[in-house]
Amino acid sequence: MLARFKTARESQGLTLAEVAERVGIDAPALSRLETGKVLNPTLATLHKWAEALGQKLDVDLAQGN
After folding, report:
1. Integer angstrom CA distances of residue 25 from 4, 28, 64
2. Which DSSP state fits 25?
3. CB-based burial of residue 21 (10 Å sphere; 0-12 exposed, 13-18 middle, 19+ buried)?
4. Tell me: the pLDDT tens digits for 28-58?
5. What is the mean pLDDT of residues 2-25?
6. Would you say the C-alpha torsion 32, 35, 39, 60 has a positive or negative sign?
């Protein structure tokens, strides 16, 4: 999912700094998320990130067996 966010950012021609400002985090933190150096973003951060890219994040909890 994080790679999809990066691809969406790049395809829209947005810089890390632009998206980071929209999300409310600093650019180095966003870079660490995009590169997988940090693998535990909060759900709130993911929602803000998706919104910053004009996307919607849907979370679905399915019952396991």
Report:
1. 19, 9, 34
2. S
3. middle
4. 999 999 998 988 899 999 999 999 999 999 9
5. 95
6. positive
The Cα 23–Cα 50 span in angstroms is 9
Cα dihedral 12, 16, 20, 22 sign: negative
Under DSSP, is residue 24 helix (H, G, I), strand (E, B) or coil? coil
C-beta separation of 8 from 2 below 8 A: no
- Tokens in use for 29? 């933190």
Q: Which of 61, 14, 60, 65 lies closest to 49 in space, CA to CA?
A: 14
Tell me the torsion sign for CA atoms 11, 5, 30, 49: positive
